[in-house]
Amino acid sequence: MKNIIVVDDKDHALKQAIYEFPGVDKSQMAFRHFDSISSYRAAKLTDVFILFLDFFLSKDRDYGTALIPEIECEHLICFSSMKQMSDHMYEAAVQIGPPRIQHVYSVQKIKSRIDNEQLRQVLETIFRK
């Protein structure tokens, strides 16, 4: 089972991630949404395949960058509605790098619609590997 995790105070990122997931067998994937850093930490997840991380998490009054040093996953998608914040998280995650975080991507979340071409391309790249 591949764990697909979304850490975002709103659920739009989860909807967008599921919508853009490529045509792969989703029966072997578990999609989970955490609306705060504290709820993600409490879950104590291991074996995370993809983690989508938002920049500002209002319930914690904290930033995704605070969680990056704790993350262990194969693919981290820095996923903020502000591209520069996705890029900022990307830079922080690259510093952590392997073996804790194998691959890092910076993608802008688009709140005004459900489709996201850049996210689709990243997910297709991940599943071609």
List the helices and strands and how they pair.
Layout: E1 2-7, H1 12-20, E2 29-34, H2 37-43, E3 48-53, E4 56-57, E5 62-63, E6 73-80, H3 83-96, E7 101-108, H4 117-128
Parallel strand pairs: 1-2, 1-3, 3-6, 6-7
Antiparallel strand pairs: 4-5
Could you give a quick summary of the protein structure above?
Helices cover 33% and strands 29% of the residues. The protein is of the alpha/beta class.
Question: Could you characterize the architecture of this molecule?
Answer:
It is a single chain. With 129 residues, this protein is of the alpha/beta class. 33% of the residues lie in helices and 29% in strands. The chain is built from 4 helices and 7 strands. The mean pLDDT is 92.
Level of helix content?
25-40%
Instruction: Just give the CATH class.
Output: Alpha Beta
* Separate helix tally: 4
Overall tally of structural domains: 1
- Rg, rounded, reads 13 Å
So what's the oligomer here? Answer: single chain
Fill in the keyword field for this structure:
single chain; five-stranded parallel sheet; Rossmann fold; 129 residues; alpha/beta; 4 helices
